[in-house]
Specification:
The complex is a heterodimer of chains A (181) and B (1144).
Chain A (H helix, E strand, L loop, with lengths): L2 H17 L8 H5 L10 H9 L3 H5 L12 H5 L6 H14 L6 H17 L4 H12 L4 H14 L16 H10 L2
Chain B lengths: L6 E5 L3 H13 L2 E5 L49 E4 L2 E9 L2 E8 L14 H5 L3 E3 L8 E3 L1 E2 L11 E2 L9 H5 L16 E5 L3 H13 L3 E5 L2 H10 L4 E5 L7 H11 L4 E7 L3 H9 L4 E5 L3 H17 L1 E7 L1 E4 L3 E3 L17 E3 H7 L25 E8 L15 H16 L4 E6 L9 H11 L3 E4 L5 E2 L9 E6 L5 E6 L1 E6 L1 E3 L1 H9 L25 E3 L9 H21 L23 E6 L3 H6 L2 H9 L4 E7 L5 H14 L3 E6 L1 H4 L1 H11 L6 E5 H6 L6 H20 L8 E3 L3 E5 L3 H12 L3 E5 L21 H14 L3 E4 L2 E9 L2 E8 L3 E7 L1 E4 L3 E3 L13 E3 H10 L9 E5 L16 H15 L4 E6 L9 H9 L3 E4 L7 E5 L2 E8 L4 E6 L2 E4 L3 E3 L3 H6 L27 E3 L9 H19 L3 E3 L5 E3 L9 H5 ...
Parallel strand pairs in B: 1-2, 1-16, 2-3, 10-11, 10-12, 12-13, 13-14, 16-27, 18-25, 19-20, 19-25, 20-21, 28-29, 28-30, 30-31, 33-34, 33-39, 34-35, 39-50, 41-48, 42-43, 42-48, 43-44
Antiparallel strand pairs in B: 4-5, 5-15, 6-7, 8-9, 17-26, 22-23, 23-24, 32-51, 36-37, 37-38, 40-49, 45-46, 46-47, 52-55, 53-54
Classes of the chains: A mainly alpha (181), B alpha/beta (1144).
């Protein structure tokens, strides 16, 4: 990772670092996290890396992407730290910097939100189609085919294609973007 | 000398209250010791084991000289002292006035049982139909509504839990001595108004309360209630909060305007608890959450009825007030309760665990010796302790550390291992192990390495249990340092609950404008651990926050000193010493022993064959007669006994009765009314002897009693009243060391009116404080020191000797003669009665291997001095590394110096304040930010100070190359090497005491393994040496902050004043002497005496004894080769005779 990217990351993650400043590494977050087995770096280690400015290590792992925002850690942290919010700051940093290793998850999130923006809810077929197109990988849809058919057969996703609908929540999203600068 | 005797109220009769009370009583002041509970001794009554000895040691606080003025038994049993009046079930309501003239209002709930009549026979307990949770066993067992307050209590009198009592009267009927007397309570006159808009609630409450005998009126709205109050007066109002029209809170305000004394209870739905709590701030007494159990309502009403109607207020005029309410434990069930305390079986608090394994607790299985699960009854194989429950946790409202739980849990884990075998698995889950005392770290190592206690640095957030598989135990999930998540099951989990302010004391403080801190603990003045915001009111023990036994004891002694100063300043008198009357010499009179047995205990007639007993004793020639009598505990019985003694004129008495008739006060009474010296009266507790023979084996029981009586008779026939010896005692003090501890102790003693010589080896007074600027709290140390030195120099009772050392010292009974050596002026001899060793300590020097001044490598002290000299400019530093435990807490100096972590935090905060861009790194092993200091740890982290934990295997290394300084360490959590380039490296090297062994030795004091002063008992006598005239304080005693040094200095001062206050000291009744004629002056007794009571008088060529120092232990008699050292009243002939009699 180049020095400049690291500097930009540092600036972007400064807030996240401040949020976990008083962490005493007790490990409550990790022991509480339901996704920790899918993470290559545990939350406890990640906060430690963040505090000791090991941004390269954090962003070469995908731990924070695995956070499903269940808020267990925030609820339980004895220091009252907003760990879920810190996780999502890291996700935002990864997305804004368009880091290559997070392309897949960033595009996944983006496609999801685009669909929400348009319809006020997610339309699965549209969302996945958009995701496959953004990924520019012709083989990718086949990887999801089995899961997709299973979900279709159980009626969990609906085969409608409401492409081109007007953005129902665009104004809301724009306002938030404006507020957040 | 017509002045009044000084008197102090001590509120709280636990460990700290008893310490303050005894210190004042021994000095000669009167003390009124009160407690809200029904027994004295406080929390320690429930704890059988203290670390590091795993035993108790409460009795070590008892007076050492003139000890016959007080009882000489376990303080959990009770306390009797001529200068202490004790009031139990008594609450302190208010305090007004100025120091030296305080008016305190107390409220005492009268007991329904006359303690003088109750013999503790327990008949009432058998018939009482009410079972409630036994609070003494933390609810692990049940007890009756009539019960013994504590299993150890000497008073042995029953008491009634009036909130649980149904007033059925069974106990009153069965009591053989008529001790139970239900006061004819006129509950009819207690008028209650129930206000609720729902008719059904009003009517049912009316019915329930009427059944209890109260008169009840009802109102359906606030306005109706107010109208009713206009026409008649009420004592209590129970009101709903949510009502149409005027709500309950508005009604409360208006009702209080009509009748200020009205007791109000709010009733509320669960969702409105906040408004009920708000109402309590406006004067409501309590609240009930709807729907409520009638029993809860009734016990609340009855409790208030007792507190406000039955309780008797009394007003006392005193000089000073010491608050010793202690702290309370955090109650996990009231918070988020993620550990399922009270829900999951097997989750208990530390205190419950101590009760469980106590000798009087319910957890032991005598058969297998295993620990049994309190709910399932199965043997426990795997236990866990979870630290920081209700401390260091913002969710439970406590950002502070509770200071003592780490050591408590280590002790409990060791106890579990010791009591239940090594195959019991014990694990402690902790965040930082705070072993903040001089022997604590070693204790932890013992636990870990010798006892096999497992320590895991992880926090468990919650516990769960599979309801289908309850036998699997409690399920916990935690992550280890390597990041691996573990799941483990435990049979028993102990929660190390943190501490909370004492609620009753906090309420008192709020009502009497006594300042409290952010967390509700009593706040003390800068540099003091005892002075509250109101003059004349002192805080003792852990009331002001979070202390272990030794600190509580020290702080309570310091509070006693504060009270002593107030009384002295107010010109109050002390009680004169008891005059050692010379008793009649009975050596040449034939012993005539009267033996009296009281038969009132019901076991007596069933178990004893009096004729056999009489026949057995008749063969002893000294027996005057054996008398059997009734009801000694009554007025009549007592008179009969006195008449019997007057008629028979025995010169010795052996008395067999219940405990309540034979305790110290009663025997004193007997001495006064009959003239029979109290040490010629031997007593036997019949009840406990008879209890040894359960069933109806009359022969064995009779033989048992006969044997006990014979031993007492044998003891008695050799007894000769020994005159209480008195020794003239010098009333001046010598303080060695001019640091803050020496200054404070000198000022404290001088303020109590005694002359002090203070010697300092250096040129200036002030010690370590001279190089310090500010405390971590931002207090100005130099200003404080200036003020102290000014007072010291101008005090007329103090002589300062600078550049002076002790050349030599000699001791004789009651006095030291110390030769001082001044650097220029030569020698001077001082006579003094007590010595305080306040020689201080220094920061340990940097090890040569790590230091290189050219690269800005400092100790903490050097760094702070460099900042003051401006050889270092903090603004210019880019990167500072602090290395904690440098050269300490390892194999060479294995103790924690307690203050270095705080100092590091202070310096880190200072650096960040001067330049927020300075990178500060603290390399630590365990962050010892105990108590409220935890806040500074959090603050440092917020400001971006980076902390690296390291372990003993990977100590940080500093390398110097080309003008650069590189610190290499290992990040324990990430398991990766770290290199930090540093402009400045600060080593926390710990504290080295500066107490030369030769000096301590000359004064009969000893040093511990780390060369600090060795306390007579590290917990219960934390500033005393074995020599009762030598004390220590400050850094020579143990590592401490300035506040703690001041506290220990004040404690040493009152311990000294206790001795100085007496022109003559009175010995105990059992003291050693030497038969000079046969003594060969081998001096073995002098070397052996643990109390330093024996001296060689080289002029007279004999051994002399300080009778006040002698504790009558008899070691001298055991070592003396010629039998010349003897214990008066306990001769070998007497001992052998007692053995003969027991076997005859």
């Amino acid at each position: 990772m180049g020095q400049t990217t690291n500097d930009r990351l540092l600036a972007m993650t400064e807030t996240a670092k401040e949020m976990v400043g008083t962490c005493i590494q007790c490990g409550t977050c990790t022991a509480s996290c339901p996704n920790t087995e899918f993470m290559d770096i545990t939350p406890r280690h990640m906060w430690r890396l963040l505090l000791t400015d090991h941004m390269d290590a954090i962003f070469s792992s995908k731990s924070f992407i695995m956070c499903s925002s269940c808020y267990y850690c925030t609820l339980r942290c004895p220091r009252g730290l907003e760990l879920t919010a810190a996780m999502s700051l890291l996700k935002q940093a990864a997305s804004k910097l368009e880091l290559k290793q997070f392309r897949r998850s960033s595009l996944f999130y983006k496609s999801f939100l685009d669909s929400v923006k348009k319809h006020g809810r997610v339309k699965e077929m549209e969302f996945m189609t958009q995701y496959f197109m953004a990924m520019k990988n012709p083989v990718l849809p086949f990887a999801y085919a089995v899961l997709g058919l299973k979900l279709l057969s159980k009626g969990k996703v609906h085969p409608e294609f409401p492409f081109g609908s007007k953005g129902k929540l665009t104004a809301l999203f724009n306002k938030v973007a404006e507020l957040e600068g | 000398m017509n002045k009044a005797i000084g008197r102090t109220v001590v509120a709280g009769a636990g460990l700290s209250g008893i310490r303050s009370a005894l210190d004042l009583a021994e000095t000669g002041y009167k003390v009124l010791l009160i407690d809200t509970s029904d027994h004295i001794g406080g929390l320690l009554c429930q704890l059988d084991h203290q670390f590091p000895t795993s035993t108790c040691g409460y009795c070590r606080m008892l007076p050492m000289f003139d000890r016959d003025r007080s009882s000489q038994h376990c303080l959990r049993k009770g306390l009797v002292h001529e200068n202490i009046d004790i009031l139990l079930s008594t609450e302190l309501i208010s305090v007004e006035g100025e120091p030296g003239d305080l008016t305190v209002t107390l409220k005492q709930t009268p007991s329904l049982i006359d303690p003088d009549l109750c013999t503790g026979c327990g008949e009432c307990e058998t018939v009482c139909p009410v079972f409630v949770n036994d609070a003494f066993n933390e609810g692990l067992t049940k007890r009756k509504a009539i019960y013994l307050p504590s299993p150890q209590s000497f008073a042995n009198a029953y008491t009634i839990d009036y909130a649980a009592c149904t007033r059925c009267g069974e106990c009153e009927k069965i009591c053989p001595t008529g001790a139970v007397k239900f006061i004819e309570q006129d509950r009819e006159t207690f008028k209650i108004l129930v206000v609720d808009d729902e008719k059904i609630v009003r009517d049912s409450m009316k019915e329930w309360l009427k059944e209890e005998g109260f008169s009840v009126s009802t109102a359906d709205s606030g306005q109706t209630a107010l109208d009713l109050m206009g026409s008649q007066s009420f004592n209590m109002m129970l009101t709903d909060i949510k009502m149409p029209g005027m709500d309950g809170v508005a009604l409360l305000t208006k009702a209080k305007q009509i009748n200020e004394d009205l007791c109000v209870i709010m009733m509320t739905a669960y969702a409105e608890v906040d408004s009920a709590v708000g109402a309590m701030k406006q004067g409501a007494l309590d609240y009930l959450t709807k729907p409520f159990d009638p029993d809860v309502l009734i016990s609340m009403v009855v409790k208030i009825y007792h507190e406000f109607e039955i309780a008797e207020a009394r007003v006392e005029k005193v000089d000073a007030l010491i608050l010793s309410g202690g702290t309370q434990f955090f109650r996990p069930e009231l918070g988020k309760n993620s550990y399922g305390y009270g829900v999951l079986p097997g989750v208990i608090t530390g205190l419950e665990f101590e009760r469980l394994i106590s000798g009087t607790g319910p957890g032991l299985d005598p058969g297998s010796g295993r620990l049994l699960h309190p709910q399932t009854g199965k043997p426990v194989r795997k236990m866990a302790w979870i630290q920081c429950v209700g401390s260091r946790d913002v969710h439970s409202g406590a950002s502070f550390c509770s200071s003592v739980c780490c050591m408590i849990s280590i002790k409990e884990a060791i106890l579990a291992k010791e009591k239940f075998g090594r195959d019991l698995e014990t694990t402690i889950f902790y965040m930082d192990m705070r072993t903040i005392g001089k022997t604590f770290d070693g204790y932890r190592l013992t636990a870990q390495e010798e006892k096999g206690v497992r320590f895991v640095r992880a926090r468990i957030h919650s516990l769960s249990q599979d309801s289908q598989h309850a036998d699997k135990g409690l399920h916990a999930r935690y992550v280890d340092l390597g990041g691996i998540v573990h799941e483990e099951d435990f049979d028993l989990v102990v929660l190390a609950t943190g501490q909370r302010p004492n609620q009753q004391m906090a309420d008192l403080a709020a009502k009497n404008s006594i300042g409290t801190n952010a967390w509700g603990f009593i706040e003390t003045q800068p540099f003091s651990m005892t002075r509250t915001s109101r003059a004349g009111i002192l805080s003792g023990g852990s009331l002001s926050g979070l202390k272990d036994i030794s600190e509580s004891v020290t702080c309570s002694s310091a509070a006693a000193l504060g009270a002593c100063k107030v009384m002295h300043a107010a010109g109050k008198r002390r009680r004169p010493e008891s005059d050692g009357e010379i008793p009649v010499d009975l050596a040449r009179e034939t012993p005539r022993i009267l033996t009296v047995l009281c038969r009132c205990g019901s076991d007596f007639s069933k178990k004893l064959d009096v004729e056999v007993l009489e026949a057995g004793l008749a063969r002893i020639p000294e027996i005057e007669s054996l008398e059997i009598m009734d009801n000694l505990c009554t007025e009549e019985g007592w008179t009969t006994l006195i008449e019997m003694i007057e008629k028979k004129m025995p010169n010795r008495l052996v008395l067999g009765s219940c405990l309540s008739c034979s305790h110290k006060q009663k025997i004193k009474q007997l001495e006064t009314s009959t003239g029979l010296a109290s040490n010629l009266i031997e007593t036997m507790d019949m009840v406990s002897v008879l209890k040894r023979y359960p069933g109806s084996h009359i022969r064995e029981a009779t033989q048992g009693i006969e044997r006990e009586l014979k031993i007492l008779i044998s003891k008695s026939r050799f007894k000769n009243p020994v005159p209480m010896e008195r020794v003239a005692s010098n009333q001046a003090a010598l303080v060695i060391g001019g640091g803050i501890a020496g200054i404070t102790s000198a000022l404290s003693i001088a303020d109590c009116g005694y002359h002090v010589d203070l010697i300092e080896k250096g040129e200036s007074i002030g010690g370590n404080l001279l190089w310090m600027d500010k405390t971590v709290d931002g207090l100005d140390i130099q200003a404080y020191l200036d003020e102290c030195v000014k007072r010291l120099e101008s005090h007329e009772q103090i002589t300062i000797h600078k550049q002076t050392r002790v050349a030599s010292t000699a001791q004789r009974p009651g006095e030291f003669a110390t030769v001082l050596q001044h650097e220029d002026k030569g020698h001077q001899t001082l006579l003094h009665g007590v010595t305080i060793l306040a020689t201080g300590g220094n920061q340990a020097p940097l090890e040569p291997a790590v230091g290189d001044s050219q690269y800005n490598v400092f100790t903490q002290k050097e760094f702070e001095m460099a900042i003051q000299d401006q050889t270092i400019h903090p603004e210019q530093l880019n990167s500072v590394v602090m290395i904690q435990c440098s050269g300490t807490r390892d194999e060479r100096r294995n103790y924690c110096s307690r203050i270095c972590c705080i100092r590091a935090l202070k310096n880190a905060l200072f650096l960040k304040e001067k330049n927020s861009d300075t990178q500060v790194y603290i390399l630590y092993r365990d962050m010892m930010s105990y108590g409220f200091f935890e806040d500074y740890y959090t603050r440092a982290k917020t400001l971006g100070v980076i902390f690296f934990q390291y372990d003993l295997e990977n100590k940080p290394v500093t390398e110097f190359t080309d003008g650069h300084c590189l610190v290499k360490t290992h990040d324990l959590l990430l398991d990766m090497p770290v290199e930090i380039e540093a402009d400045c490296v600060i080593h926390a090297t710990g504290i080295l005491p500066d107490l030369p062994e030769a000096l301590a030795d000359q004064y009969g004091a000893a040093l511990d393994g780390f060369h600090f002063f060795k306390e007579a008992d590290s917990k219960f006598r934390p500033v005393d040496s074995m020599n009762y005239r030598v004390f220590s304080c400050g850094l020579s005693l143990k590592p401490c902050t300035i506040e703690e040094a001041v506290s220990s200095a004040e404690a040493a001062a009152i311990r000294a004043v206790r001795v100085l206050a007496h022109e003559r000291l009175v010995s105990g009744k059992t003291v050693a002497t030497t038969r000079t004629a046969t003594c060969s002056l081998c001096e073995m007794c002098v070397d052996t005496c643990p109390y330093g009571a024996r001296f060689v008088d080289s002029l007279e060529e004999k051994i002399v004894i300080d009778p006040a120092a002698c504790q009558g232990c008899g070691v001298c008699a055991a070592v003396c080769p010629s039998g010349s050292a003897v214990l008066e009243g306990l001769g070998s002939q007497q001992m052998l005779d007692a053995i003969d009699m027991a076997l005859s």
